[in-house]
Specification:
422 residues, alpha/beta, five-stranded mixed sheet, 13 helices, elongated
Length: 422
């Protein structure tokens, strides 16, 4: 019996030992497995970080190569222009904002090439006729025709435009020499002085039913009607100073204007609200400056080449391709939003077509990861993105909206008068 008891005790002890080894070994295995999984996760994160760093380094190397090549080309151009001792005549509209734009280009050209420059201001049909709605003009280029003529006649060497005013098809004999880096893209709300002084109204959302919003663009009218159907949207024409006088004399409760124009004229303090581009979009090429020259003037084309901001040029190329495909302009409410990732070389574009009453909206989005940061293949790829978005909008019913808008020749609400608003 004693032997049996000893054997039983030994067996139980051995079993307990084996169980303990298994149990604690299992705990250790679980800990080891968790540690392994944690290590693998860290390895994956490290791999992703290395890949991102490699992409960044490659992008910096590419930029450095491009910068070195650009510096060499620039030195050649500078030597050529300084040797000619030739001046550059810059054509522009003579409004305050247009003059700022021309002076901006003037400063860049003088700084790059150390040449003499002069600015030639002039009025266009759009500046002279301030009573008609922009949508009522039958011809395109309402703000560019006179500058085109001055270029063709040799009266100026280059012409500076707010790019959203530039027709998608230039006149024969003219070429788009440069697109400068884009400014702010969004639209901004400016309230009248009474609302600002009282302080109760801070944005469009705060305005009461029937409040009057002024804008010259059918695009803004349509989108405002969609988001704020309780507000009245009416035409307003004239330069910024003229529009502000109409606003502060209570003809309008608020104006919706391009944010970049206000900023360029140092009127930041008049901006009461910035409209979210993801919700409202913006005009094709809004915020960008375009410089046009004669297509046969090779020397001027070479002078303008370094002024290009490639991401801006790619984005505006896509936007203008969409507009041209849809045969848009002042007469149709088309909005866009584009983003370009220079590292991934990816262009994303959204397009909207909105009925004038805001009740019907067509929307499309396209992303293309093959838009290289270049002015040759990249431009063609960017234009293809614009055409793809245009086709998607057509499939969503945009053609019916556009046809209705083109048939509405006036397509606008008359400007507010002092007697029309109590």
């Amino acid at each position: 019996d004693a032997i049996k008891d000893n054997l039983l005790t030994a067996t139980i002890t051995a079993g307990a030992g084996i169980f303990a080894l298994w149990y604690f070994g299992r705990e250790q295995r679980m800990k080891d497995q968790e540690a392994f999984q944690s290590l693998m996760a860290r390895a994956r994160n490290l791999e992703q970080a290395v890949e991102a760093l490699t992409n960044t380094v490659n992008e910096l190397r590419r930029k450095n190569r491009n910068a070195e090549e650009g510096d060499a080309q620039l030195k050649t151009l500078q030597s050529s222009w300084m040797g000619m001792n030739r001046s550059v005549r810059i054509g522009t509209r003579d409004s305050k904002l247009a003059m700022w734009q021309a002076e901006h280009v003037n400063d860049i050209v003088k700084d790059l090439y150390k040449v003499k420059t002069s600015i030639v201001g002039m009025k266009t049909l759009g500046d002279l006729d301030l009573k008609s709605s922009l949508s009522s003009f039958s011809n395109k280029g309402v703000f560019t025709k006179e500058l085109d003529a001055a270029l063709m006649l040799g009266e100026v060497d280059i012409a500076v435009h707010s790019m959203k005013d530039l027709p998608t098809l230039l006149e024969d004999g003219l070429a788009l020499g440069a697109v400068l880096e884009r400014g702010s893209i969004e639209d901004a709300v400016v309230l009248n002085s009474t609302h600002r002084e009282e302080g109760k109204i801070k944005s469009l959302e705060d305005l009461p039913e029937g409040a009057v919003i002024g804008t010259s663009a059918l695009r803004r009218r349509a989108i405002l009607s969609k988001h704020y159907p309780h507000l009245q949207v009416k035409d307003v024409r004239g330069n910024l100073q003229t529009r502000f006088k109409k606003l502060d004399s209570k003809q309008y409760d608020a104006l919706v204007l391009a944010r970049t124009g206000l900023e360029r004229l140092k009127l930041h303090d008049r901006i009461d609200q910035v409209l979210d581009a993801s919700k409202f979009g913006y005009a094709v090429s809004q915020g960008a400056l375009a410089v046009v020259c004669r297509s046969t003037d090779k020397r001027m084309l070479s002078l303008l080449l370094p002024l290009n901001h490639v991401p801006t040029r790619l984005r505006t190329a896509a936007e203008r391709a969409l507009l041209r495909s849809l045969e848009g302009g002042c007469k149709v409410p088309i909005a866009v939003k584009t983003d370009y990732d220079s590292v991934k070389q990816t262009l994303t574009m959204e397009g909207w077509v909105v009925s004038l009453d805001g009740k019907k909206v067509c929307h499309a989005t396209v992303t293309d990861a093959s838009v290289t940061l270049s002015l040759d293949k990249g431009l063609e790829a960017a234009k293809a993105v614009g055409l793809t978005v245009a086709e998607a909008l057509r499939k969503d019913g945009a053609e019916d909206i556009l046809a209705a808008c083109r048939g509405d020749n006036m397509g606008h609400v008359p400007p507010a008068s002092k007697s029309s608003k109590k």
